[in-house]
Amino acid sequence: MSSFDFTTIHGSWLHPFLLFTTLALFPLSSVAQNISINESITATENSSPWRSPNGDFAFGFQQLQSNRDHFVLSIWFDKIPDKTPVWFERSSYRVPRGSTLRLEARDGLVLRDPQGSPLYNTNIIRADEAVAQGSIQNTGNLILTATNSSNILWESFNHPADTVLPTQTIEMDQMLISRKTEADFSQGRFYAGMNDSGNFVLSSKTAPLSEIFDADYYSSTTSSSNNENTSNSGLRVEFNETTVSLSVVTSDGRSLRTLTDPPPPILGAENYYRATLDFDGVFTVYHHPKIFEGNPQWTPVQWLPKDVNGICTITGKMGSGACGYNSFCMVRNGRPVCQCPQGFSLADPNDTHGGCKSDFVQNCVQGEDDECELEVLDDVHWPEHDYERLNPTTEQQCRDACLDDYFCTAAVFGGVSCWKKNFPLSNGRGNSPNSRVFLKRGKPANQENVRREKSEKRDQKVLILVISLVLGSSVLANLFFTGAACFGFFPARDIVRDSTTTTTPRSNLRCFTYKELAQATGGFKDELGRGAFGIVYNGVMMLMPDDSRTLVAVKKLDRVAQDSEKEFRTEVNVIGQIHHKNVVRLLGFCDEGPNRLLVYECMTRGTLAGFLHGNVKPGWSQRAQIALGVARGLAYLHEECITQIIHCDIKPQNILLDDNYTARISDFGLAKLLMLNQSRTMTNIRGTKGYVSPEWFRNTQITTKVDVYSFGVVLLEIISCRKAVADAEFANGENPIITEWAWECYLEGRLDSLVGSEEEACSDAEMVERFLKVGFWCIQEDAALRPTMRKACQMLEGTIDVAPPPCPFSYTFICSET
User: Fold this and answer.
1) Is the pLDDT of residue 548 over 80?
2) Which of 176, 527, 666, 744 could form a disulfide with 192 if both were Cys (CB 3.0 to 4.6 A apart)?
3) Which residue in 78, 162, 214, 649 is the catalytic one?
4) Facing residues of 535 across strands?
């Protein structure tokens, strides 16, 4: 490793990595002390943390720069400017201002929010001993000791976050987990720990909800199969304080393998050391001088894997790979970095590993070369999840095959083979010689169309100016006559209101003319779908200042003449104020004469129904992410909107998928509003067979629980890829009603039948069962037993336990048999 250029490191990749601690956290001053029972710290800028006797470490709250009203509970190096965290409480890392941490005899450290609700505790379960005090050791270890005893009841070294310190070990049941980003303390995608075989491994889990890890990208090869005189029991990783190296050792302290070499003697003993699993997956040993001038940074000494190219070649059966979807991994200056291809940008500017989104609209039409073009990327490869392979073929044939295929959004050509793919692209990697990628995108609009549309816009501006002057004069006249009437200049008379008068939408939306929408949709020819209140058409419009063309979905409300106006006003006034990643966004409307139209962003992946019941069964991890997205979208509609919304028709046909297969709830044509000062609303029966909750048929008051019921049915459908009411031939003689069939399978322990013996889902049985139980709670016949969508989200995420559900049916033979 002596050939490694530390100057290059310090000047390039190390700078953003180590500057984070200064930018992301504001440490708080302190004095050295032990922690007594009932002693507390409050999360404010001025609170004092607890220090180690030598003052090297402090424990308390550090303020997040990203949100000055949130803090992280952590232990940090206190004598250096960066105040680098070495331990933090991950599950509730965004601690609200005013929260209190208190040492209690029974539970140890207890963290409560300003309202007194518990956020975290050290969960000490010892009936025979109580906590007497706590202290920060000179090693950086926070310990809680027992009454009248030196027994350690809890210590931070046994609950590591992403860092180990000298004298600390990583036992068989412990694991380091990287952060999501340098500034985001939530769970990342990389893991370090001892596996059951006795190897210290670095692994990734690129599908966060999955219980399955991807292939290891580093292994110590210290399992008993490689060491005849060693048992796996008792093996651990030790950070030796004397040699400042990491080694796999046995229970009696015998070293099996040194993982990192000691630092060069020139560094000397007057340094701080830490080994951190960084957010990019590299397990790095750093040093920092104890005596310094200015503002020195942490410098890497050793790292695992020693060849970091192994991180970029991570290939998971599910998830996105080492980097996020639609991005690829490359090694630069000794570190793996994630990069977006040309025409793409980061989905989250603050998360380089979070994947990329396209900056263009995919508006190609099969076989029409004049509307499509291919972006070429050399030495890049997305090796997984192609849906068709052509072999042998030429490069030109590969290009033509993708252009002519409606479903092809990218093609990879390598030698004599061509692999067709569609978004999102996963497991991307750079530095792939002999690989050429063709990304399909729509061509920019031709110049003639651009000039014509700009001319039309200028004409519209002139028209708007004229209308504004006329309306302004009208307003002044109205004010005069209104004032005259108020002061008695005119005799009073009854005012008759026209019942057909429309209300101007209260949302900040673009108002289109009927002509504009007719042109955008090509005369309303390309029909996307039909609903109870109208037809949806595909269209292309210029919505952005840069005149780029955007795909839109135009909903023409013409199915029910009497009610269309009411539904139109409901949608425009309410949906125009909704902004959530799991809800389709309304872009504008048309309210011209008898014409009522809505313009939505277009979801290119179609409906969840088509996704679940197509020719190719989608993977479990992708289905699970979609289920979570639907749940979060509904929770937003029910609890986070200014005006609460009951959708009333949740079903797979009303859940759309964007380019990245993110679930987006659509079609509020059946939605009813639930004002904040109300708890219930009455309405006529709404919804679709198979998804309608029982209270619709009882003439009882309707609440958000009707959506919870429908979501439960959709969740069972997502789990099983089976329709709510199965076709006779698909049911194979079994119960065609999905709710009853799923309950039968659950009672009989036939989870494999529920997922069709799908390997990925069967290997994730714990998660499948959790989702299944949430589904049964949601479809309880008694609405009071159903969870809120917020609680359903928490149960799906695994943040709260899911109790065994009761039989959801009150009067069927199925329950009588249980």
Assistant:
1) no
2) 176
3) 649
4) 530, 556
